[in-house]
Amino acid sequence: MLRKIVSPLLLIGLILSACTQAPAVKAQKDVLFAQQDERVISFQTLIPTERIETPEVTPAPVDDPLSSLKGIIVEDEEGILLLLGFVNTPNAAINFQFPESYQFPHEHIQDDFRILDGNGAALEFEEVDPGELNLYAENPLGEGIFDPRAFRILQKEVQGPLTLEMVNLIQAVNLAEQSGLSFTVEFDADFPLGKNNWDVNQTIDLIPDYPFTMKYFDATVFNDYNQGKYGGPQNTFLFGTYYLEAAGFEGVTFSQIVPAERQEEWPMGGGGAEQACPEMFANCIMSDAGLLKTGDNVYELQITAYRLILHGPWQAKFDLPQ
Question: Which residues contact 314 (CB under 8 A, 6 or more apart)?
């Protein structure tokens, strides 16, 4: 049983995901959410590989980022566990996640979450790997859960109810069924041979209120690991990584717009991943990319997905098991 209370305020910003436990789950308790108003990011229409003219489609708004959050408190022989996860929203184009879903353990878990006891005092907790808890097989949160997290409360004696405070969340936007967010980049004549870093330094202002800069393309995989040899069915494919300066994003995914007559050159599994890289420079995002070599070294790209950082906080209250 879920009850929601709406309170004002929300901004938009950056974070990741983790895991949980599956011993004897006792009883699922009511969860009380204190949520912020939320601004849904508008966007245009986009088709992933071949250019096709289609009308723009705007996804239906998702007003409540916590309406898809699931959570329960359970006990095992070691104490109290808080299990959390998300389910899909009614709008397939927009979902919500915890920060840092691209890695485990999550580096900023203590910054992104706080757990308070019934008196408002902060509790110590640690993150537990959901794989170790067999969370995916046991399904204590129900079917269809993604990005699960599990937190173990380190104190043995705890006064309830417990309050989970989420400082940041991620809004994941999937543009796979749309077209419109496309742009071109051009490299020097020798690309990608001879050096690993190819400057772009191009500002992309296609997502309203969220411009970012594509700083350079890293061809290390092509030059060093593949020894300058193209792959794919017709030896025209290369793999590398874009480096972006992208404040407010946790990730941006690109694909090359490929003419119909070149579709067969694209290899199976030619995609990649993206993640933060703050050790490189401020607001750094790495985005893996596959490209089919062009004769003029001009590449038409499109944004197929992105993840925005939302700043709360949001609060969820959980009763302790009886």
Answer: 33, 34, 35, 36, 65, 66, 165, 166, 169
